[in-house]
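As a point of orientation, let us examine one representative protein, giving the amino acid sequence and backbone structure tokens.
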Amino acid sequence: MSDGPTVAAVETPPLEALIDSFRTSRDTLERSILPYATSVDGRTFEFQSSLHGLTLQTGGYVVLDDGRQSRFGQVLDLTATTERASVANVPGLSSEVVIRLAYGHGIVLSADTGPFHQAHVRPASGEEATAWFAEQRPARAALEIGTMLLAPDVPATLDAGGFNRHTFMCGQSGSGKTYSLGLVLEQLLLHTDLRLVILDPNSDYVRLGDAKGDPTGQSEAAYGAAASGVQVWGRETEHPLRLMLPDLDHAAQAAVLGLDPLADREEYAALSMLVSGRREGTPVLGGLDDLLKAEQPGARDLGLRANNLGVLDWSVWSRGQGRSVTDAVLDDDIRCLVVDLGSLDTPQEQRVIAQATLSALWRHRHRRQPVLVVIDEAHNVCPREPADPMTRLAADTAALIAAEGRKFGLYLLVSTQRPQKVNEEVLTQCDNLLLMRMNSEADLGYLREVFSFVPGGMVYRATSFRQGESLAGGKFFPHAGFVRFGARQSHEGGADIPTDWAGLR
């Protein structure tokens, strides 16, 4: 007699068949994930999307449509993540499978219309992106610097009025920083009346006034007219880069000679007497013989000190002849002054001229004449840790301009490839950012902390930038975005040495 009904044994599929079934189920689930977004405040949103055929990108512009209304937004970060799902591969049995999907956050850029759920997300078209940017553009000059990296049909423009805030530009060697900064300066010359004073340590902008040839002649003529006010002051130019010792303030005069007002009180007093007692148009420090014969106490020691330091041989001393660079700094008829520090023989002379330029601007700040002060290679001109007294004075002056200069019309544009080496006060006072390729995670982390108004996910994309690509954010850009710089209208002053030596033999 039977003990009960007979149950047919369940056949278990072969292992390979089970694996194929899992893979098929996972693929089906991953492809079925819809690009939906949800917002609980109407201003920010989170979204999901399938990784298959993914068209969304960090920094990209999107349209969010919930069936009732369309909104314009931007993706701020996007990552691949995983979720677990249950699938039934064998009758009566279920198991978990890990599925992969895209997940991210974004910001709603159009008018706030309240929360929404399950809004379909798609990339914005070129027309939609162009329309939004046109709406944001203020009734001021727009400086066209190229195109939007993730919307190539859309011109990338900077709001000229935004340069009344300090600007920081950063990019490692080979990122296109020097070329791109030249393009920004060209646009300022073409479309604004803002005066420019450029500290140029590498002679990169000495040809800013030289327009490139153009087949039609139209752009060349337009830029040529705008650039006619560019003056280059260098060692061997039409305008010699010179100054006199009295053009420096007392602290800088002492720094030139390494004097301490207490430890070197006799020499310090002798220098003060020589400066105050000189006749108009005559040099304070003539030759060594003049100092050795001077009657003032300490003058002989001062002469020996100046001779030992080589100060008397510097080419920057005008020796009572011609104009001083500080006169040019304060000459409002010079639309753009390029101070060619790179043409000078010694770093000491470069530091003196840089300090004299910054100090003259600061001392005469009450003129309230708007000036954009461009400091290239800022990690050398105004470093975080100055290596000598003159550089310390320059860094302190730059910090004063950064902290207090805006109300007097003094605006900074500082450029570097080493952001953590720049004076912290200068860096933290910048409200505009142009970030080009940077491979250093430490540098990017530091910039993320300083420029907290720029989404972190966009900052870290700088490691993948190609030459000429940049992140722009701040007052001069409607919302942080990626741009591709266009072509310049002037010649580059500095360039790498050709690698003809590496040719095939």
